[in-house]
């Protein structure tokens, strides 16, 4: 029996790599002769490029930089053997996971630290940056990244503005391009299809998640619109809004004025890079999972896309998740995890034990 173990991260509780190991060990307990292939997956969400770097066995480079609020932190990126392509996530140093609830503030937070990682990769030879957009703490059109790459932002009097200031967006009036222009292009991986503008745009949808108050949405969006207009005037480019531009606070939208970019559906791109197609063909059973499968999962999330591939090759696909929304999904089996009490300090350990016990009760012969 060949079993492909390909879970997504169980958000907030178990990383994809750890989940795959836990599932594999539990299966081996009851099915010692089973042949297992561990291939944890991601779909453009938090940690996608970390998982890609590990899956592709790329060299990891570390760099001290700034977090979303300007505090020193340690970040990293991965480089291919020829050092031409770099993989990194916005969430590594500009992530919402590293901020306490009361620290979330889009007026102050920027992607400057992510820009520092990108600059480090460029200085090491990279000309292609693959950037995972999931899990960001920012809504800044990528201006922090631009700042780290040498772009200077000025107020109406020509004075340079400092990042991590709550007046930055209100005061920015001019932008100066860097003396040194970097020959680099970007591939952005995302798991949402939101545009930058509109009711489902970056500010109204993701702004509140990142600390923006409802009464601030209209002003904040107008300031970012003004900033986008400034980018357009500076570069002479008119960029049409499109799906994916709303991800991570408009990073892809903002950087598209200054660099060649492309946006990819994270799951599809990830699957191609790690050769998941061949692994599905090989398997008799496929086990996947995520923290809570819901209607949004069918908009390009990893578990759903893996199910489509399993159907294509006539393979059985089992989903491990919590909640009841998955019960109507078209998986061959659905294993429901117990609900967690997140007020319990040991909720992560409980989540791991729940996963193990659920797999121990799995009967492949049913």
Any chance you could write out the topology, listing elements then pairs?
Elements: E1 2-5, H1 16-30, E2 35-38, H2 48-55, E3 59-66, E4 72-79, E5 85-89, H3 91-94, H4 112-123, E6 128-132, H5 143-148, E7 152-154, H6 168-171, E8 174-176, E9 185-190, H7 202-206, H8 217-235, H9 251-255, E10 261-265, H10 266-274, H11 276-282, E11 285-292, H12 302-312, E12 316-322, E13 333-336, H13 347-360
Parallel strand pairs: 1-2, 1-11, 5-6, 6-9, 9-10, 11-12, 12-13
Antiparallel strand pairs: 3-4, 4-5, 7-8
Describe this entry's structure for a reader.
- Strand 1, helix 1 (about 15-30) and strand 2 form a beta-alpha-beta unit.
- The strands form three sheets. A six-stranded mixed beta sheet has the order 3-4-5-6-9-10, sandwiched between helices. Strands 2-1-11-12-13 form a five-stranded parallel beta sheet, with helices on both faces. Strands 7-8 form a two-stranded antiparallel sheet.
- The protein is an alpha/beta fold.
- The protein has helices spanning about 15-30, 50-55, 90-95, 110-125, 145-150, 170, 200-205, 215-235, 250-255, 265-275, 275-280, 300-310, 345-360; strands at about 1-5, 35-40, 60-65, 70-80, 85-90, 130, 150-155, 175, 185-190, 260-265, 285-290, 315-320, 335.
- Helix 1 (about 15-30) runs parallel beside helix 13 (about 345-360).
- The mean pLDDT is about 95.
- It is elongated.
- The longest helix is centred in the middle third of the chain and has 19 residues, at about 215-235.
- The protein is about 35% helix and about 20% strand.
- It has two domains: about 1-40 and about 275-360, Rossmann fold (3-Layer(aba) Sandwich); about 50-265, Glycerate kinase, domain 2.
- The chain is built from 13 helices and 13 strands.
